[in-house]
Each structure stands twice: as structure tokens, then as C-alpha cells.
Amino acid sequence: MFIRFKHSPRSGGCSSLSVYVAESRREDSKPRQKVVRYLGTIKESSLPFAQFRLKFWQRAVAAIEGLNLPAEVVQQLTEAIAARVPYLTPEEHRSVMARQEEAARREGKPLPAYEPDLPFVRPV
Q1: Domain spans of the chain?
Q2: How far is 52 from 96, CA to CA, in rounded Å?
Q3: Which of 118, 73, 70, 66 is nearest to 94 (CA)?
Q4: Who's near 65: CB < 8 A, 6+ residues apart?
Q5: CB 36 within 8 A of CB 16
Q6: What are the DSSP E strand ranges found in the chain?
Q7: CA distance 92 to 122
Q8: 3-class SS of residue 41
Q9: How many CB atoms lie within 10 A of CB 31?
Q10: What is the distance between the alpha carbons of residues 20 and 38, in angstroms, rounded to a whole number?
Q11: Cα 52–7–87 angle (5° rounding)?
Q12: Higher pLDDT, residue 117 or 35
């Protein structure tokens, strides 16, 4: 299994990056790629912003965990994604969570759970 990236240019210069888990197989002696799971899409202009990367990583990690793969395969897949969609630093994660908590308080909604040991939060 491997990560497949699909770059989709959009009008106005706002392109996006879609991420899939795929596998190679041979059919009629020809190589074919089969998409196993869609992991998510992020606008390339949003990559510098932690809140958008957090949302992308939350969806991607949940989708990968749903495949019930061995830990070493999960590690390889997440590292391949991180080459294009950077992990969050602990400082970025705390900052995003603080903004979400502030918004929840303002709107009277339950506070989001803080999860310090997420697989997509990496120290610098």
C-alpha cells in the first residue's frame, strides 16, 4: 500500500491536494492502481495554516485507522503524507485548540477535547 496524491488545479489559482491510500496489483499482466480509501483534501493555499492541517490530519488518521493495518504500515503512510502536508507542532496544536475553546465558550457549546498525544502532532 502507498499514498497517492492528486493535484487538482482550480480556476483562480486555488488548487487542492487530494490524498488516497492505494495499492498496486496486476490485472491481465498489466499494473493497475486501486484506491483503497480516500483520506481527504486540503487546499494548497491552506497548508501554512495549522487549523486547516489539523482538520485534514484528523480525517486522514481516522480513515487510516479504519483500515486496521499493522502499525509499521500506518507509520509509513503517515510519514508519506507528512512529506506533503506537514505535521502540526505542539505549539500550533495548542494554539488551534485554544481558539476552538474560545469559540465554543462564546457560542455556549461543549469544549473540544484536548488530545496531546495525537499521531500528527510532532515536536520540531
Answers
A1: 2-107
A2: 10
A3: 118
A4: 74
A5: no
A6: 2-8, 16-27, 30-43
A7: 10
A8: strand
A9: 8
A10: 5
A11: 35
A12: 35
- Entry pTM: 0.84
Position 41 scores a pLDDT of 95
Residue with cell 500550533: 92
Of 38, 65, 40, which is closest to residue 52 (Cα–Cα)? Answer: 40
Residue 2: count other Cβ atoms within 10 Å of its Cβ: 14
Does residue 91 surpass a pLDDT of 70? yes
Residue whose C-alpha is closest to residue 41's, from 50, 53, 51, 33: 53
3-state class (DSSP) for residue 13: helix
Q: Strand pairing partners for 32?
A: 25
**pLDDT per residue as tens digits for the range 34-76:** 999 999 999 999 999 999 999 999 899 999 999 999 999 999 9
Task: Please count the other Cβ atoms lying within 10 Å of the Cβ belonging to residue 107.
Answer: 7
**DSSP codes joined into one string, 34-91:** EEEEEEEEEEGGGTT-HHHHHHHHHHHHHHHHTT---HHHHHHHHHHHHTTSPPBPHH
